[in-house]
């Protein structure tokens, strides 16, 4: 069992509030937010930090009124694995499908791994929103 | 032994619908598993209008992206540009002047009126009520004319620039808007009566697709779809942006949660928007229209949320200090609301699916980069992006030199 530091959820001094979590802390943190009925999951953003940094940052954006909370998770780019939020928040499924196909992040226990946006014949090892993917004709 | 009866027991009967969808003028693919007429499972496949815009913004500068992002959607173009501008202004540490913010809100509410009217027509059409469809789309022209009169454009009004807005509103424009609004207000009251009293329309909407407040929270719906289930979520009130703190809109809620509630909520929102626009016109703050925004934006992250006609639109913008953004992530309201269709479909008749889908006002936003022009007959001429661009440049050069 992982013990979490108390999150100052009532503070609006810093908006959005950025909280860095590890892949292990992610589910307990989201569970706690969910149990306290604090806000809702607005979106999941993936950011490729590039091959040199070998990192992918994933932001889980929660909103409660005007207060925003970003759970920040950094994972290795060459082995990107995160757990699925769907057991707690079923609505995360679409966001996870998008994250999976655009960044090549493996999401464990996510209920649906079909492509949501990409065509079915899209190559399985090409992830369009990674920085090293350059579509033809861009910048011409 | 392999028999047909055996096969029928283990195999599911799946009805594919789309991508050329009978209920929508935009592409989406649905698979409904049915037991007789009753839907037992539903899945969706999107992306037929995917244009790689999130990738595209990374190789364009901050100003170019304004025009690209406004074209994410052909219905709610203004809210995309507004969300982007507010986010970039936050990053740059500037704030658009009050008059510009009020004009942003005014155009956003006009856009909501045209979007809700468009939606009402589509829903009426899906319900087999084509008379209502024709009348609502005729009336919608009023707000389209207003938008054209104040901005010069019907669809991409291009009201925003980084740091403010492009056009001002004078007494003449205010008069045009007020006149149009009076007509639309009267019509909206009439349509409210129609959708609450017409027996056939009520049969298609009352008690169909009921979503309880608890379900709405679990599924994570937003916008009018959520408010029709009593879920009080509206970014205009929760986190006021542009001029919404000065000119607030009332929240419209309904606790019935069915299709009928979704219709009524949107119609009442029309009345709320009309009232808000009048307040803005009465009390338009004086002053400048723009502030200067630097070409390079300070490094950092910004989140910008606005209330699109379909619900909360979310922009995440990250700058690395250069002329181009590092990353922009967009979460459109339809993605949140789509999950509700898949959940609510189960247990309903297959015939209710088009209505159920139309009930969330889905927007697949399609807009291709090429354009086919037809000069009568079968004479097709394919226009490339380059040719279209050159045509635009030449056109405006001629305009400037006074040839027209």
Architecture overview:
The complex is a heterodimer of chains A (140) and B (404). Chain A is an alpha/beta fold. Chain A has a domain at 17-108: Beta Polymerase, domain 2. In chain A, 18% of the residues lie in helices and 28% in strands. Chain A contains two helices and six strands. In chain A, the strands form two sheets. A four-stranded mixed beta sheet of chain A has the order 1-4-3-2. A two-stranded parallel ribbon of chain A has the order 5-6. Chain A is globular and about 45 Å long. Chain A starts with 16 loop residues before the first strand and ends in a 32-residue tail after the last strand. Residues 1-12 of chain A have low confidence and may be disordered. With 404 residues, chain B is of the alpha+beta class. The radius of gyration of chain B is 23 Å and the shape is globular. Chain B is 49% helix and 14% strand. In chain B, α5 (98-126) runs antiparallel to α6 (130-151), α5 runs antiparallel to α12 and α6 packs antiparallel against α7. Chain B starts with a helix and ends with a helix. The longest helix of chain B is centred in the N-terminal third of the chain and has 29 residues, at 98-126. The model of chain B is unreliable at 366-380 (pLDDT under 50). Chain B has a three-stranded antiparallel beta sheet. Chain B has two domains: 53-331, Cytochrome-c3 Hydrogenase, chain B, CATH 1.10.645; 374-404. Chain A binds chain B through residues 16, 40-43, 45-48, 59, 61, 63, 65-66, 68, 70, 89-91, 93-95, 102, 112, 114-119, 128-129, 133, 135, 138-139, and chain B through 43, 45-47, 50, 52, 54-56, 59, 217-220, 238-239, 303, 305, 312, 314, 316, 318, 326-327, 329, 331, 335-336, 338-339.
